[in-house]
């Protein structure tokens, strides 16, 4: 008797691409806690008193458990409106006007105590463009000063189109014009970058996940194995169609001279390996599958949490893991009332918040010393006169004038040396 073999049809594996979808489509953290039983066990919601989140609650019970929400109403007696999106003008007001819990001085102190007690040994950092604004690089979404607010001269139909792979295929020139400004080389790491470097120096940094493409994390000394550049970088280049590698310096030279680099294999346009909307994320991004379940502290800084799937990473840690938001505005799950148990935030200027956190940890002096030593030992190549003579490019443009001067000096030295040798030979013959 013939037995028929049953086939199990498995759903296809979905590609993970960069998108600008809002987090409204994602489940709330409470729904995730109720539904996630396979990864952390059926008793995930039971939190023991020995967890870091429970310790934080005991440390700052005065500021975490006293929320008066039943009487939250405006002068007319109507309930307060729901939290607005973090891109609107209301976000730049006070935290209380947005219906979110304002930051408390006990938040930073409580997390600092955990770190000093040795309870946080696998720290994961999630960072966005806000950590580089102190270096002079604008972020993307701040109204008025953000990059998306100043793209009129590039003639794009909408701001995100300049990083859209389909739009780039039709018209790469707007991105190449912007790339001249975004190319690394003219900015230095700031105090925030060195704070993350100090986490690594103390042996506490498990991994840093960054949305930035400026390369300042590597420049300040964070090792490559501790860094995940989720949205790529300018360090390499390839064809956007067939992905054939292309020399990064040649691509930079062409872009700086208003030329479009083309692939030698398929003749399509070459671009730096920056992840556009609609493109696959790098393989290294998927380290989050083992990093976030292992983390015992999550620090979120300088991000609007608007870009998926990067924005959903912060919901991948266990419910007992404390999360600290260092940001100008409350974003994502930190806009909700009440906050999740163990969630803390320090709102305001990011550089000031990070410095305050470092002072509570007792690291401020070490960070200052590290910044000074890094400036001396590893100066930027483009700012070093001795290194400029060795580089074929200066700010992406060949230093033709300097090379001509060096060639003429070398030629004159060779002529003078040959003349000296001829004179010495004549003198020796005459003396003989």
UniProtKB/TrEMBL annotation:
<feature type="compositionally biased region" description="Low complexity">
    <location>
        <begin position="409"/>
        <end position="419"/>
    </location>
</feature>
<dbReference type="InterPro" id="IPR050134">
    <property type="entry name" value="NAD-dep_sirtuin_deacylases"/>
</dbReference>
<dbReference type="GO" id="GO:0070403">
    <property type="term" value="F:NAD+ binding"/>
</dbReference>
<dbReference type="Pfam" id="PF02146">
    <property type="entry name" value="SIR2"/>
</dbReference>
<feature type="binding site">
    <location>
        <position position="263"/>
    </location>
    <ligand>
        <name>Zn(2+)</name>
    </ligand>
</feature>
<feature type="binding site">
    <location>
        <position position="242"/>
    </location>
    <ligand>
        <name>Zn(2+)</name>
    </ligand>
</feature>
<dbReference type="GO" id="GO:0005634">
    <property type="term" value="C:nucleus"/>
</dbReference>
<keyword id="KW-0520">NAD</keyword>
<feature type="compositionally biased region" description="Low complexity">
    <location>
        <begin position="93"/>
        <end position="104"/>
    </location>
</feature>
<keyword id="KW-0808">Transferase</keyword>
<feature type="region of interest" description="Disordered">
    <location>
        <begin position="378"/>
        <end position="432"/>
    </location>
</feature>
<dbReference type="GO" id="GO:0046872">
    <property type="term" value="F:metal ion binding"/>
</dbReference>
<dbReference type="GO" id="GO:0017136">
    <property type="term" value="F:histone deacetylase activity, NAD-dependent"/>
</dbReference>
<feature type="domain" description="Deacetylase sirtuin-type">
    <location>
        <begin position="98"/>
        <end position="364"/>
    </location>
</feature>
<feature type="compositionally biased region" description="Basic and acidic residues">
    <location>
        <begin position="399"/>
        <end position="408"/>
    </location>
</feature>
<feature type="binding site">
    <location>
        <position position="266"/>
    </location>
    <ligand>
        <name>Zn(2+)</name>
    </ligand>
</feature>
<feature type="binding site">
    <location>
        <position position="239"/>
    </location>
    <ligand>
        <name>Zn(2+)</name>
    </ligand>
</feature>
<dbReference type="InterPro" id="IPR026590">
    <property type="entry name" value="Ssirtuin_cat_dom"/>
</dbReference>
<keyword id="KW-0862">Zinc</keyword>
<feature type="region of interest" description="Disordered">
    <location>
        <begin position="70"/>
        <end position="104"/>
    </location>
</feature>
<feature type="compositionally biased region" description="Low complexity">
    <location>
        <begin position="378"/>
        <end position="392"/>
    </location>
</feature>
<keyword id="KW-0479">Metal-binding</keyword>
<dbReference type="InterPro" id="IPR029035">
    <property type="entry name" value="DHS-like_NAD/FAD-binding_dom"/>
</dbReference>
<dbReference type="InterPro" id="IPR026591">
    <property type="entry name" value="Sirtuin_cat_small_dom_sf"/>
</dbReference>
<feature type="region of interest" description="Disordered">
    <location>
        <begin position="1"/>
        <end position="45"/>
    </location>
</feature>
<protein>
    <submittedName>
        <fullName>NAD-dependent protein deacetylase sirtuin-3, mitochondrial</fullName>
    </submittedName>
</protein>
<dbReference type="InterPro" id="IPR003000">
    <property type="entry name" value="Sirtuin"/>
</dbReference>
<feature type="active site" description="Proton acceptor">
    <location>
        <position position="231"/>
    </location>
</feature>
């Amino acid at each position: 008797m013939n037995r028929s073999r049953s086939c199990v049809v498995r759903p296809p594996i979905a590609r993970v691409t960069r998108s600008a979808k809002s987090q409204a489509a994602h489940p709330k953290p409470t729904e995730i806690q109720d539904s996630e039983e396979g990864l952390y066990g059926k008793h995930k919601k039971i939190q023991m008193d020995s967890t870091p989140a429970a310790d934080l609650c005991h440390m700052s019970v005065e500021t975490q458990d006293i929320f008066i929400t039943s009487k939250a109403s405006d002068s007319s007696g109507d309930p307060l409106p729901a939290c607005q999106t973090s891109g609107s003008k209301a976000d730049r007001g006070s935290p209380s006007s947005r219906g979110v819990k304002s930051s408390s001085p006990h938040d930073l102190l409580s997390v600092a105590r955990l770190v000093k007690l040795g309870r946080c040994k696998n720290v994961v950092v999630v960072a966005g463009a806000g950590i580089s604004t102190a270096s002079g690089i604008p972020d993307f979404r701040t109204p008025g000063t953000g990059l998306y607010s100043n793209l009129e001269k590039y003639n794009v139909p909408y701001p995100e189109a300049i990083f859209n792979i389909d739009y780039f295929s039709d018209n790469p020139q707007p991105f190449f014009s912007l790339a001249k400004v975004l190319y690394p080389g003219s900015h230095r790491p700031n105090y925030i970058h060195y704070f993350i470097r100090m986490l690594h120096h103390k042996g506490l940094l498990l991994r840093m996940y960054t949305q930035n493409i400026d390369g300042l994390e590597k420049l300040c000394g964070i090792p490559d194995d501790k860094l995940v550049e989720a949205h790529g970088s300018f360090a390499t280049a390839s064809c956007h169609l067939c992905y054939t590698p292309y020399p990064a310096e040649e691509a930079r030279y062409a872009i700086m001279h208003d030329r479009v680099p083309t692939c030698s294999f398929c003749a399509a346009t070459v671009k730096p390996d920056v992840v556009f909307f609609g493109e696959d994320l790098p393989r290294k991004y998927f380290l989050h599958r083992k990093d976030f379940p292992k983390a015992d502290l999550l620090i979120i800084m300088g991000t609007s949490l608007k870009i998926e799937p990067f924005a959903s990473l912060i919901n991948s840690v266990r419910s007992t893991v404390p999360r600290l938001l260092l940001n100008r505005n409350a974003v994502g799950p930190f806009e909700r009332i009440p906050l999740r148990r163990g969630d803390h935030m320090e709102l305001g200027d990011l550089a000031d918040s990070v410095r305050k956190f470092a002072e509570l940890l007792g690291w401020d002096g070490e960070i200052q010393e590290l910044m000074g030593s890094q400036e001396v030992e590893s100066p930027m190549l483009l700012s070093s006169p001795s290194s400029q003579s060795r580089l074929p490019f200066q700010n992406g443009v060949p230093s033709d004038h300097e090379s001509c001067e060096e060639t003429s000096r070398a030629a004159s030295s060779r002529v003078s040396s040959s003349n000296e040798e001829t004179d010495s030979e004549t003198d020796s013959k005459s003396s003989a």
